Amino acid sequence: MNQTIFITGASSGIGEATARHFQSKGWNIVATMRNPQNGKALSELDNVLIAQLDVTDEKSIAAAAESAVDRFGQIDVLLNNAGYGAYGPLESFDIARIRRQFDTNVIGLLVVTKAILPHMRANKSGTIVNISSIGGQMTFPLGTLYHGTKFAVEGLSESLHYELETVGIKVKIIEPGMIATDFSGRSFDFANDPAIEDYEGIVNKFLGGFGNDAMQPSSPELVAEIIWSAVTDGTDTLRYRAGADAETLLTNRKSYDDATFIGGMKQQMGL
Hints:
Layout: E1 4-7, H1 13-24, E2 28-33, H2 40-43, E3 48-52, H3 58-72, E4 77-80, E5 85-87, H4 95-123, E6 126-131, H5 144-165, E7 169-176, E8 188-190, H6 200-213, H7 220-232, E9 239-242, H8 244-255, H9 258-268
Parallel strand pairs: 1-2, 1-4, 2-3, 4-6, 5-8, 6-7, 7-9
Helix pairs in contact: 1-7, 3-4, 4-5
């Protein structure tokens, strides 16, 4: 029986690229997304189920998981990919937008995982892959909310690794650098209140630096290949970096003390 991967946020970017990569390897694909009409191209491939799922809606999560098992019999891999980035001065965000960032990137990931775990536990096997970021190990200015969620993903994944290992389930963390997706488009929630003039300097520096960093991103297909390796390498490796910038930045973060690394970041962004 072919193995099955269940993917959140599969309508574009890393999720879609991963669906295509695993499908090309003969896997069954459960490609979930908030708007299933965005999955038309994927639906034309063999052994692909498109399912509606919003990580902030528990009923849609349960329904998608049930549809996956009904169609393919089991779920071997869960890829928690759905998410977005909220950037800007903290004072510019109202409570609703703060909650939305954490509900999507952290609580949603936990609820999806919790929905799939009983099935994997019954089979005594499975792999959970959580998409983090270089932003789960280091930060950029104005990323209080986004980095808060990705640091949370790193911590919960590492801890979950212990308990799930005892029942035959592996946990993997993927840490992409800058990727050529729509992260700076519909997956990017930027807030700024011009009335608070104290932040205008750092906001302008950030927006200029963010654009420059995005000039030479890695492809979503590269991340899909890293995810494939993480799922199939047969090891208990926890973290996987994706992209040359991820390798460089995360190596530097671990090598330098806080003052040196943060000072270098500030210098690079002209702060």
